[in-house]
Design a protein that fits this description.
By secondary structure, this protein is mainly α. Helix content is 69%, strand content 0%. The protein has one domain. The radius of gyration is 14 Å and the shape is elongated.
């Protein structure tokens, strides 16, 4: 278990844990040519459907969020959305 600058577990203090988990899990499906594009796209869509549950988990676990980490997580999430064409 990782700890933050303030000594709390990363899951309790660092929103980047959740943003990175979501982004990496989807990116890895799309990037690795383990199956046909359609199969990988369907797998990524199923993973995207799980994002609301991950956000609920993040809300429950982030009991001591660090402001700097929160800002970095927001920037990372925006970057991921720009890569998918969801935000300009």
């Amino acid at each position: 278990m990782q700890t933050s600058l303030r000594g709390h577990a990363a899951e309790e203090s660092d929103p980047q844990v959740y943003v990175n988990e979501v982004a990496n899990s989807i990116f890895s499906i799309l990037k690795k040519p383990y199956a046909a594009d359609r199969i990988r796209a369907n797998a990524a869509a199923k993973r995207l459907a799980q994002v609301p549950a991950m956000l609920q988990l993040a809300r429950a676990n982030l009991t001591h969020p660090v402001k700097l980490y929160a800002k970095l997580a927001i920037e990372a999430a925006r970057g991921a959305m720009i890569c998918t064409g969801r935000v300009s």
